[in-house]
User: Fold this.
Amino acid sequence: MSPFSSTTTETARGAAGAVPRRSGSASRLLARLVSALPWRPVLGMLAFLVLLETLPHSGLVNPRYLPPLDRMLTALANQAGSSGFWDALGATLRGSAIGLAIAMAAGVVVGVALGSSRVLCELTTSTVEFFRPIPAVALIPVMVLVIGPNATSTVVLVAYASFWQVLIQVIYGVQDTDPVAYETAASFRFSRLRTLRSVVWPSALPYVWTGLRLASTMALIVEITGELVIRSPGIGRQIALAQSADQVDNLYALVIVAGLIGVIGNVVVRRLEAKTLHWHPSVTGVER
Amino acid sequence: MSIIRRGIFLVALPLVLVVLWWLATRQDTSFYWPSPHRVWDAFVQTWTPAEIRQDVLPSVVRFVLGFLLATVLGIGLGVAIGCYRGLREAIEPVLEFLRAVPPPVMIPVIILFAGIGDGMKVLVIFFGCLWPVLLNTVEGVRAIDPVLRDSARSYGFGPYCRLRRLILPAASPRILAGARQSMSLGIILMVISEMFAASNGIGFTIIQFQQTFAIPEMWGGIILLGLVGLVSAVLFHLAQTHILRWYHGFLRSQRKA
Amino acid sequence: MKVAQTMTDGRAEMSSSSGGTMLDLVGVQKTYAGKRSFEAIRDVTLSVRAGEFVCIVGPSGAGKTTLLRSIAGLQSISGGEVRLEGSRVDGPPEGMAVVFQEYARSLFPWMTVRQNIALPLKQKGLSRHDIDANVAEALEAVGLSEDHDSYPWQLSGGMQQRVAIARAVAYEPKVLLMDEPFAAVDAQTRADLEDLVLALWKRLGVTVIFVTHDIDESVYLGQRVIVLSNSPTEPLEDLAVDLPSERDQLTTRMLPRFAELRAHVYGQIQASKAGARPGDVQP
Assistant:
């Protein structure tokens, strides 16, 4: 007797006092479960994992360069057992978060200021467009000299790089406010601050979230880059160490960890975005 | 009149900043923050045509190669995946994971395969630039207006015609947004890969200056990098304006409706 | 464009060419599969002769658009057959052109008006010369010769719909399918567009199937009005419109016969909304 049928029998008996068609309700439940399962994505992921496992074993790909999945996962499990790994993970998350927070705060403030004043915006456009393409990584040598090869340098770089992502999006968002909304606020004699708070900010919110999403991706990249190049503590440094010690399995395990951080971060930001923006008519979503 | 006004606005703040910089470094004692004219001198002396050919050209070539490869493959794969719903649903989670891996992390991995030469750098740039284009293309193809699709179908457009006249133009705003992202990413990866292991290139030169404490030259190199980024941004903007010349008017008319 | 031939014969041509069957719907049925299967169209059987102007009306949600899309081959049907001049319709057949309700979204925004109209003709394989000729004639027929180099989104709603009509007409289809084309257009523009469609129909001798929810429009335009029941859709009544073929916005709509027909159709629609099925006793 399958577990399903016994349960349904008991509850149904208790409720209706009659014996139901056990197999009918059980198979219906199973069918519902199967159809609810997103089998295509699951199949896709399974296929990918199978590929990762079999390609190196088969010899099509040199296992020295791409170890099979089970070796990667074993290394990952070993890492999870060592405290050094968790310290490194914490350092990476901390660095990204602090840099991102600074960037968000500064980006929103400056972005709102520049976005709401056409004069200010025009004055600063050339400067912004000049500094913006300077990759944060180009400033690594400067940071190393001035602050030193430590976590602070990395955080400063993270903040610098993420700042531009936030700034651009916030400026767009503020500038994109519907003129009709402005006129409505004016007809109700809203003060400047009130207009900003009740009209401009909600309208710019999707852009702010886009900025946050782009900035968080950038933050992770720059944080890890800093750890790779400057060797400040974190997952990036662990990766560099694994590479110089030729520990290929560990290397891939840490790469997986970095990917997972990225994915989870993405998912978290998107969930929060969906929650806070559930009232907003969907924006076209074209990222600029 | 407005051109003059625009010109003034363009240079006003930068001029002010340069003046402030000059004032702040008038003592000329700070080691790490040299005065403007020292940086200028170093800049002009360093980046001679010969130097540009030796260091800037390889960097730019690697970047362009990696970026173009990623764009072509990203669009090609993206269209294929975007057109088939089943394939898209199956593959999307894997793509999202691969995209979430911070590209610099792949440098040590790619070094395993490709050593530390030019190939490695192009591969690194390619790997980083691929995902924004690919995923944006998939999304752009998926989001094509069903009424447009129906129009194309009802008038019997063949697959090649649909690709050229419907799919690519309709997805082009999204594709270009992805390409813009990947361009910035590509420049970053170009520099990082050179800082990691190189014998020439802009990033390599900057690191060399830093290690030999040639500070004004180092700053000159950073400014050059900014200029490279600026030029590529301008070129991209020009290309985008041309390709999407219909798009802004179209968006505006949608807004009004 | 084969205009001259029909114009010389005018209405005589109309009545004599209305001999052959152009479109046949035999037991068309459409059920949407899924968690809860939904029968959209139960059983539609009707014939349309060549050169006829048929209007299809029904309450909202009656499946008018589903029916039109099935005829156009844009949608597969679960049972029965759609036949165009005897051959079965599997996918969008050559010889049919559709004018959609959402005109703005049916025109390609990255192409000019002229390019939009020319593209289906290129697909058809016409020579460059023929394409240019057809495009010019179509634009002239809808009154947009001046705007051929504009982008669709630069034009007003009514003009955009004219472009969509020009595109359909330049294609020289045998059957012109129009899916509530004037629903999203203001009343004055709608009157102009209605007359435009009538003029084009007379000029080209094309078979027109016109789906609308506007009762007045259906009586004004059609030679036949088919009233659909509520879903699952079946034809409730097939009404012949015996108004003079010269239609005019003012005079025709003031005719007593117009009012009678209109009232009758209105009554049918109300009955349809109330759940009337074919075969029920009609007042």
Summary: Chain A touches chain B through 63 residues (CB under 8 Å). Chain A has two domains: 3-67, 73-276.
